[in-house]
Amino acid sequence: MGDLDQSAAAFERALRLDPANWSLYLDLADLRAEQGDFAAAASLVDQGLDHEPREVTLRAASAAYRTRLHGSADDLRALIDLAPSLTNTTYRNLLIDYACAGPQPPPELVAEARRIQRRQNGSS
Question: What's the first-to-final CA gap in the chain, in angstroms?
Fold first, then answer.
């Protein structure tokens, strides 16, 4: 915590020791996203999906980071579909925020994603 470069180095070392640990890929991807490197984040999540293709958190992160990179309607739709399955609402909202800040995501899908944030936060 605190020094993102040191944290990234620690996750990279951990991945060398346990390259099949999908959670480590997600942790490092999230750190790269926090650093603003969404291409690296998407790539890391894809590597995690190679090990655990059904993991909903990985799938949601993949959709969010790809939407952030490309503004893809298909990826944003995938995130919207997966969002209710994410139990950590803070993380879910962060992924939605990342996705909605991408290059020209479809406005109607952005509005739908924002409604999910509000509805699941307890406000309408």
Answer: 34
Q: Is pTM beyond 0.85 here?
A: yes
Give tens-digit pLDDT for 66-96: 999 999 999 999 999 999 999 999 999 999 9
Contacts of 44 (CB under 8 A, 6+ apart): 25, 26, 28, 29, 32
Q: Rounded CA gap, 101 and 98, in Å?
A: 5
Contacts of 94-98 with CB under 8 Å at 24 or more apart are: 95/60, 95/61, 95/63, 95/64, 96/64, 98/33, 98/38, 98/64, 98/65, 98/67, 98/68
